[in-house]
Specification:
The complex is a heterodimer of chains A (about 170) and B (about 160).
Chain A: H1 2-10, H2 18-34, E1 40-46, E2 62-66, E3 69-73, E4 86-89, H3 103-116, E5 122-127, H4 133-144, E6 160-163
Parallel strand pairs in A: 2-5, 5-6
Antiparallel strand pairs in A: 2-3, 3-4
Chain B: H1 2-7, H2 17-33, E1 61-66, E2 69-72, E3 75-78, H3 99-114, H4 118-123, E4 126-131, H5 137-149, E5 154-160
Parallel strand pairs in B: 1-4, 4-5
Antiparallel strand pairs in B: 1-2, 2-3
Helix pairs in contact in B: 3-5
């Protein structure tokens, strides 16, 4: 009798995996539906705030975006040698899509402005009404970081973006 | 012969250990990829522009501008396509303001300001903007202008990561 009881006690019961399987079977469809294989990121911008500019305040670079290209204005730097402000035309006539704009040239010129005024972090974008949204995002990307040989992922240039309506 | 017939219905126990291993690996992989940050709530087909930015979206009011119209937090507000390149059609926009959107945003702002939760207080004045990459700026201008005049002056434009 004692032997029989002992043998029953040492005999391990099978692990009941059914509840675990149920849990996992529920979790996997939930996680599969929640999984994002394309990551959503974001770019920050602000609306311009009204106020009177002080005389000693540095005017940030202004980039007008139109269906002709970019027009860069660097107020206060015009008399410096190598001033790169002015029109940056599109690579193809008509500026039909995002790739038509010359972001590399814009980034190079903004890098020059950053070297002149390292403390400035603001940039003002002035898109025309007919400019498509992806061009605006591309311009913000170009202004955000220094151009490098392997792409635009260098030091931070102008991460604080204000957007105002372009010239009519 | 009879004893053999008795043995036939006996099934071998199902070996689920290997399946459990597989499911556990899949579960761990999915849990690793699970994002707790807010995702872009879309309305209609929206193709996001690509960007080099790696910053996530924030917890805030989400405005979606698609070729079908405008939605707030995934709920359609205006089902009118923004005309190219003049933005919203006359009647929908008045003096650069979308009245329906302005009323809704002001209500949201009042509700958020009255909320004592610090996380909600932080979201006051912030907006996630989810817009189709082909939308003209004229349409966004009216939305941004309306949001700005309603007290939402900080924007986050939703983009698809991975641009070089």
């Amino acid at each position: 009798m004692r032997e029989r009881r002992r043998s029953r006690m040492t005999e391990g019961a099978d692990l009941d995996l059914l509840p675990v399987m149920n849990l996992i079977s529920l979790l996997i469809p939930f996680l599969l539906t929640a999984t994002q294989f394309v990551s959503t990121t974001s770019v920050a911008a602000t609306a311009p705030t009204a106020g009177v500019a002080k005389s000693e305040e540095v005017v940030p670079p202004r980039v007008s975006i139109s269906r002709k290209g970019f027009d860069l204005a660097l107020v206060g730097l015009e008399d410096r040698p190598g001033y790169p402000g002015g029109v940056i035309p599109c690579l193809t006539a008509g500026c039909e899509n995002r790739d038509a704009y010359d972001y590399d040239a814009l980034a190079d010129r903004l890098a020059w402005a950053k070297l002149q005024r390292p403390d400035t972090v603001d940039v003002i974008l002035m898109p025309q009404p007919d400019v498509v949204y992806e061009v605006l995002i591309g311009t913000m990307d170009a202004a955000r970081s220094m151009p490098t040989a392997g792409g635009r992922a260098g030091a931070v240039m102008f991460p604080v973006v204000s957007i105002v309506a372009g010239k009519p | 012969m009879r004893a053999r017939a008795h043995r036939l219905p006996t099934y071998a126990p199902l070996a689920i250990t290997s399946m459990m291993d597989l499911l556990t690996i899949v579960l761990v992989f999915l849990l690793q990829n699970f994002e707790t940050t807010p995702s872009a709530e879309t309305f209609g087909p929206v193709e996001l522009p690509t960007s080099t930015s790696e910053e996530p979206l924030i917890v805030a009011v989400t405005l979606t501008v698609s070729r079908e119209g405008l939605a707030v937090d995934g709920v359609p507000l205006l089902q009118v396509a923004p005309s190219v390149p003049n933005g919203w059609p006359p009647g929908v926009v008045r003096e650069g303001i979308l009245p329906d959107l302005a009323a809704l945003l002001q209500a949201r702002r009042s509700a958020a300001e009255g909320n004592a939760d610090p996380e909600d207080v932080d979201m006051v004045g912030q907006i996630n903007l989810v817009a189709d990459r082909g939308i003209p700026y004229a349409a966004l201008r009216d939305v941004l202008s309306t949001a700005s005049r309603s007290g939402f002056t900080r924007f986050r434009f939703a983009t698809a990561g991975g641009a070089q």
